[in-house]
Amino acid sequence: MPDLTRISSLSELPSVDRLLVGDGIAALVRERGRPLVLEAVRGALDEARAVVATGGTVARAELESAVAARVRTIAAPSLVPMFNLTGTVLHTNLGRAPLPEAAIEAMAAVARGASNLEFDLETGRRGDRHRHVEPRLCRLTSAEAAIVVNNNAAAVLLVLDTLAKRKEVPVSRGELIEIGGAFRMPDIMKRAGTKLVEIGTTNRTHPRDYEAAIGPRTALLMKIHTSNYSVEGFTAAVGERELAGIAHSHNLPLVSDLGSGSLVDMTVYGLPPEPTVRAMLGDGVDLVTFSGDKLLGGPQAGIIAGRGDLVARLKRNPLMRALRPDKITLAALQSVLALYEDPSRLADNLPSLRLLGRPRTDIDAQAKRIRRPLAARLGEEWVVDVVHCRSQIGSGALPVDRLPSAGLRCAPASGAKRGRSSKLQALAAALRTLPTPVIGRVHEGALTLDLRCLDDEAGFVAQLDRLAAP
Ligand SMILES: *Cc1c(COP(=O)(O)O)cnc(C)c1O
């Protein structure tokens, strides 16, 4: 007796049209629209055809559920919020700075409809999009002028393309950085048509190295903040103030790529010192470039602040049209910058700073609260401990400093080394499949969740009963 509930030959497979009119699928079409369901039906049939063609069988009843599963996968958004429990606060792969509510509201407000992005409400004429952030940036940094582009890599590109095309820029060998995601200073310089003149050595560069490199084709001097590493030991570098003196004595501008770039003194908030944009400009730097979503705590953006005549040249570069920020970025940046007007409340109002400044006692107490529900969910095969750990700031800011933090260490209760390692990977994978995926850090035989960035504790605990313990 052949099993009629199973399809075993190609001719028994339903056609696309047959499958589409089945009750369950027709309901999906009403819910999600025909094109998406059609794609899912074709996919499910292709898969069934492959099974049957290689001698397998497919349950008739399962075809519909296979289509439904495909529809869910196709329709699901790809970009989703997560819990960043990696211990790296400004994690480039996880979207860097969390934005304050005020910035989120400002973005939503301009996203919803028309705005005065490039419209002057006073004169009723065309306006300039930069004026929404420029005055505030100037006040906060003491710059004469400032502009915003898509990100800091774009800022560096725009500066070099405008000021150093077909010209030379001497850079210390100790500062030829690679930031993650294929941002290499020598490559950006090449793209901008700038000839890089390497000077000094990896560990030591002196004023005379700059002096010797300056010639008729030199466009500017450049200082690059070594954001993601530190050179220690027998080292020498030329500071901004001295370098500005050298540059200006040759009538050249000094550009500093600060990377993270802070608008305020971070030590006030209990964090390690990081050069501020204001201090750089005070030291005589003519243009400073920095990111909007690193220590500043705002949206992805690149900010260029400094001398008015140089910024005016940047604004006139046709590349500006390609690199300019959109209204949503400007709305968020405007509102984040506004928070800096009141430094006394900044640590409360700016989420990135609040997370960076969270004391260990606070995180430790949170770990103690969460340990029990997590341990209960993971069951007897796991040991869950409250541990002290160290968070990183991330995004290349303050690369060697670590912030005392606390978290939960999940380790398999027993097993050989290989089995334990695959068990850890299975736990990491299970955490990633939660409705709001949880990302921790697997190292030293355990999966550690650094709780520094856990704001929504209730949300985290509430979804634990969806966790399938491996
Ligand atoms: C991060 C960084 C960049 C790149 O900035 P993005 O905003 O990521 O484009 C460039 N230079 C330095 C020194 C950096 O730290």
Account of the 3D structure:
The protein is an alpha/beta fold. Helix 2 packs parallel to helix 4, helix 3 packs across helix 4 and helix 5 runs antiparallel to helix 14. The radius of gyration is 28 Å and the shape is globular. The structure holds pyridoxal-5'-phosphate (PLP). Pyridoxal-5'-phosphate binds next to helix 7 and strand 10.
Quick take:
By secondary structure, this protein is of the alpha/beta class.
List keywords for this structure.
470 residues; alpha/beta; 4-stranded antiparallel β-sheet; binds pyridoxal-5'-phosphate; 17 strands; 5-stranded mixed β-sheet; Aspartate Aminotransferase, domain 1; 3 domains; globular; 41% helix; 18% strand; Aspartate Aminotransferase, domain 2
Topology, element by element:
Elements: E1 6-7, H1 16-21, H2 23-32, H3 34-53, E2 58-59, H4 60-75, E3 83-84, H5 101-111, H6 134-141, E4 145-149, H7 152-163, E5 168-172, E6 178-179, E7 183-184, H8 185-191, E8 195-199, H9 207-213, E9 221-224, H10 240-249, E10 254-259, H11 277-282, E11 287-291, E12 302-306, H12 308-316, H13 319-323, H14 327-339, H15 343-349, H16 351-356, H17 360-378, E13 382-394, E14 397-412, H18 417-432, E15 438-439, E16 441-443, E17 446-450, H19 457-462
Parallel strand pairs: 3-15, 5-8, 9-10, 10-11
Antiparallel strand pairs: 1-2, 4-12, 6-7, 11-12, 13-14, 14-17, 16-17
Helix pairs in contact: 2-3, 2-4, 3-4, 5-14
The chain binds pyridoxal-5'-phosphate (PLP).
